[in-house]
Amino acid sequence: MEKKTTRKRMDWQQFFITVIGTAIGVALTFVVSGILEHRNKAQAQRLTAIMVIHDIDNTIDIVKKMKEEEERNGELLRFALKQRDQLEGMPFDTLASVLDVLIDSRSVFSFDTSKEKIFNSDLDTWQNLGNMAFLDNVQTFYHYRKGAQDAINESTVWERPIPNEEYMQLIMDSGWVTEEEFAAILQPLLEEKLHENRVVYYINVSSSRLDYLTQLIDYWTGLNDENKFLMGISDQELEDYVKNISKKGVSLTRSKLLGHWVLTKGEQTNEYDFHANHVYDFSVDYASSFRQMQFFSGKLKITLSYRGEWAFKGDSLVLTPDFNTADMIVDPSGMVPEENKQDSLDAWVNRYREQSIESFKEMADKGEKYTVKARLDSSNDKMEWTESDGVVRYLKRKEE
Fold first, then answer.
1. Domain limits at 341?
2. Are residues 241 and 268 in the same domain?
3. Which of 8, 128, 222, 252 could join 45 in a cystine, given CB atoms 3.0 to 4.6 angstroms apart?
4. Which one, of 42, 57, 39, 40, lies nearest residue 115 by Cα?
5. How far apart are CA 171 and CA 186, in angstroms?
């Protein structure tokens, strides 16, 4: 009887220990889960703050570039305005640059709002971030950024004074001419335009555009400095974030680069053939825009080719073209001559080819180089090029 009582007591003790152990395990699970959930929220909070701060910094950089462009353009236009009665003999490049700055050929200006949409669409953002001063700064920034975008698109201060349609008509009326001949056309045109009130107004309010851009830069920079302080975001954290979001694919190596690559841009096809001796062959096939000439009209089919040298510099691919090797095939089958004007068309096509090749060879002495950040995808059959202006292109390996 005593043995049975002892055995029952031991069974109850074992059961009790098991229950206690399970309860402790469950409690620990909840505690650990709570800690992990809190840590994940803290990480999400910090990542959201860094994302927004980086978005504001990016916008400031865009406005800084706009300011630099406005400074260069304003200086050029003020020079042209002072010389408007003495344009004779002014270099073609200068005349063309003045006209280019005055032509309203821009598309609608807009900032990238993808980060703003992420920020505003996250229902947990307001609870997770918790810092109302930071939230107020962010909302203020996005409000003023939208206002700046609207001002640039809608205000007459920013509207360039020569309609693009007027410029296109000038090109069609001029036909194919040399730089010297086109300069002779531009000179009287610009003399006339630089006396028009609308053009003079656009030049004179360059200082207003500069003041506005400067105010945006100063205000947003101060706002974002406060954001970094409020959220305790260091420059190193921002740098690490930028590296993390921009690093994609795998590094490019010599053996993986060699071969034939194709880059397609609309109806244009660029082909690169990289050789082991650090030489590459380049060719591009494209059709010109529609041309309306005096005795014929249509499109030209063009194939341009040249050789060059390639090299690695860190994570970048450096291409050095040799324009002395430039060659061009011009196919006029898409051009339609007027009656009895086939000879004129043939002569114009030959002249177009010769002058195009000559213009490339004139560039040979300038030592042009093109540097792109290059990475491969995991299959090694797709290559990403990030150009110096931030434009991203994708090439595909072409099987021989």
1. 254-398
2. no
3. 128
4. 57
5. 11
235 lies in the same domain as 175: yes
Residues 166, 291 share a domain: no
Q: What is the mean pLDDT of residues 113-128?
A: 72
Q: What is the pLDDT of residue 208?
A: 94
Token pair belonging to 388:
């110096």
**Percentages of the chain per state (helix, strand, coil), in multiples of 5:** 60, 20, 20
State which of 149-158, 177-186, 343-352 shows the largest mean pLDDT.
149-158
Query: Residues 227, 291: one domain?
Result: no
Residue 12, pLDDT > 70, answer: no
d(CA 269, CA 262): 7
What DSSP designation does 274 have? E
Q: What percent of the chain has pLDDT over 70?
A: 83
Total Cβ atoms within 10 A of residue 319:
18
Give the pLDDT confidence of 285-309 residue by residue, as tens digits. Answer: 888 766 677 777 888 888 999 999 9
Reported confidence tier of residue 363, pLDDT bands at 50, 70, 90: confident
| Identity of residue 225 | D
Amino acid 75 reads E
pLDDT tens digits, residue range 78-108?
999 998 988 888 888 898 899 989 988 767 8
- Do residue 237 and residue 326 come from a single domain? no
Residues 6+ apart with CB under 8 A from 278: 309, 310, 311
Tell whether 38 is covered by a domain. Answer: no
Q: What is residue 28's predicted lDDT score, i.e. its pLDDT?
A: 45
CB–CB of 42/122 below 8 Å? no
Our count of domains for the chain comes to 2
Is there a single domain that holds both residue 261 and residue 184?
no
The answer as to whether 352 is a domain residue is yes
186 in any annotated domain: yes
The verdict on 148 and 210 lying in the same domain is yes
Please name which of 262, 254, 304 lies closest in space to residue 279, comparing C-alpha atoms.
Answer: 254
Same domain, yes or no, for 217 and 83? yes
**Residue 355 within a domain:** yes
What is the full DSSP assignment across 368-398? --EEEEEEE-TTSSEEEEE-TTS-EEEEEEE
Residue after which a domain boundary falls, among 246, 271, 286: 246
Strands 162-163 and 103-104: parallel
pLDDT recorded at residue 35: 36
